[in-house]
Amino acid sequence: MRSLILFLFLSIPVQIMSQESVNGKYEEYILTPAPPQSPRINSPSLYGLRPGSPLIYRVPCTGERPIEFEAEDIPEGVLLNKETGIMTGIIEKPGSYTMILKAKNSFGHFSREFTLDVGDKLALTPPMGWNSWYIHYDRISDKTMREAADQMIATGMADYGYQYVNIDDCWMMKLKSEDVDINGKRRDKQGVIIPNKRFPDMKGMADYIHAKGLKAGLYISPGPSTCAGYEGSYKHEAQDAATFADWGYDFLKYDWCSYRKVAGKKSDPDYFIRPYLLMWDELQKQDRDIVLNLCQYGMGNVWEWGGEVGNCWRTTGDLGLEERKNLPGFYSIGLSNARHAKYAIPGGWNDPDYILIGWVGNAHGMAEGTPTDLTPNEQYSYMSMWSLMAAPLIFSGDMAKLDKFTLNVLCNHEVIEVNQDPLGKQAMLLEKTDHQFVMVKPMIDGSISVGIFNLNDEVKKITITWDDLEISGNKHIRDLWRQKDLGTFSDRFITEIQPHGVTLIRLFNE
Ligand code: GLA
């Protein structure tokens, strides 16, 4: 009987999704169920900060507002705003502080444990947020950054854990330019960096972002100039770290770029690590927490040492410049990043670059945004790979043009939970052929998250066995994109997957 049920179940395609519509455009089928009206507090379940550093944390919670927030066993020195769910304060003593967060509205209530881990580690789960590069390039301004923060709240992204609002390149003065906005004194008499005229108030901008419970990030290079030719930190590292802390920034992307010009000899064993170690040490001296994102495209096997001098490190060249061969560039970048799985740990993540969906501008020529040419299936695959790989989830498309479909890809709390799992393991790549691959991520509760990816241009039926996964016994399986239980399976799982699509499941012990 049981095998009959299993047979009947498996003969129904697990992925029921039609791709092409009559007018030749791909149908944007939405898999993520709408959140309930009652409150639901989303991941992460823990957050790292240093003793004495100011805390700003907006509890990510979906449901109809107004929601009333409350915390049981909240540590001394921390306050939770009842109406906004924004936690602020300072904890002086190192330790692990677990509280019960509660949220209620007229539809119901929700509670879950949340831990503030006060020690020397930041980014205990992969950073989530938005970065300006792939949509605004050198057009970025204070106004656009503030609007991005507004949109992070208004679109609901913040309710799923997105919290960093990061300017990329082009906020400083440019070394050579005719444009009066960006051509000026690059530093004052004391050497303090001067932002360009599109950023009249860097501190005010960070305050604005913080007032929403979000965090602010910026970018610079250890070399004399950035990749786009703006002022770099070379010989001003200590001063810049202090300035960024004084302005109130929480995240720094530090991009190698022109550093090669001043770096000395490549045979020197410290060649690659030196500029990052220098900035890392300076950041440790500040009285606020600044997550350090290394951007040097994977040189010198950065994954082997990145965790000593940073919180995440780009493992490849720019995703937006990656050539599309048979498949879109995120596959080659993602699969290259997958090779370094064993180096990912809480506080130190492999970074395969941003999520480029929605409206993005072609990086060749820093163009204005247009809708992504990725198919819906490819977008689900992209987000599934990044989640399984515990990659920073940083969206870099247009915040002002977020549509329902893009938000459904970015904001599925069960998919994000895979990414934000506190065990902090990156998925292992199990089986890779020209036609398919499988990624497997162990989770803190003993379950495993599995992504099965179809690289074919046709629909394909793929079987994974427990032997492939090195597991045994009955498993209760959940489809994460649909947030649906699929039943109990004893030794294999068969799924029909659309071209370039994915089946993302989680296997729980019975
Ligand atoms: C490099 C980085 C990109 C972006 C640009 C800015 O190319 O890899 O992510 O920051 O510089 O100039």
Description:
The protein is an alpha/beta fold and 510 residues long. It has helices at 2-11, 133-136, 142-154, 202-211, 237-247, 274-284, 302-309, 329-338, 376-388, 404-410, 413-419, 466-469; strands spanning 40-41, 46-49, 54-58, 61-62, 68-72, 78-80, 86-90, 95-105, 108-118, 128-131, 164-166, 215-220, 251-255, 291-295, 312-314, 349-351, 359-361, 369-371, 393-395, 428-432, 436-442, 448-454, 460-465, 475-479, 484-489, 492-497, 502-509. Among the domains are: 3-35 and 427-509, Immunoglobulin-like, CATH 2.60.40.1180; 51-118, Immunoglobulin-like. The chain contains 12 helices and 27 strands. It is globular and about 70 Å long. Alpha-D-galactopyranose binds next to loops.
Question: Which secondary structure elements does this structure contain, and how are they paired or packed?
Answer:
Elements: H1 2-11, E1 40-41, E2 46-49, E3 54-58, E4 61-62, E5 68-72, E6 78-80, E7 86-90, E8 95-105, E9 108-118, E10 128-131, H2 133-136, H3 142-154, E11 164-166, H4 202-211, E12 215-220, H5 237-247, E13 251-255, H6 274-284, E14 291-295, H7 302-309, E15 312-314, H8 329-338, E16 349-351, E17 359-361, E18 369-371, H9 376-388, E19 393-395, H10 404-410, H11 413-419, E20 428-432, E21 436-442, E22 448-454, E23 460-465, H12 466-469, E24 475-479, E25 484-489, E26 492-497, E27 502-509
Parallel strand pairs: 2-9, 10-11, 10-19, 11-12, 12-13, 13-14, 14-15, 15-16
Antiparallel strand pairs: 1-4, 3-7, 5-8, 6-7, 8-9, 17-18, 20-21, 21-22, 22-27, 23-26, 24-25, 24-27
Helix pairs in contact: 3-4, 5-6, 9-11
The structure holds alpha-D-galactopyranose.
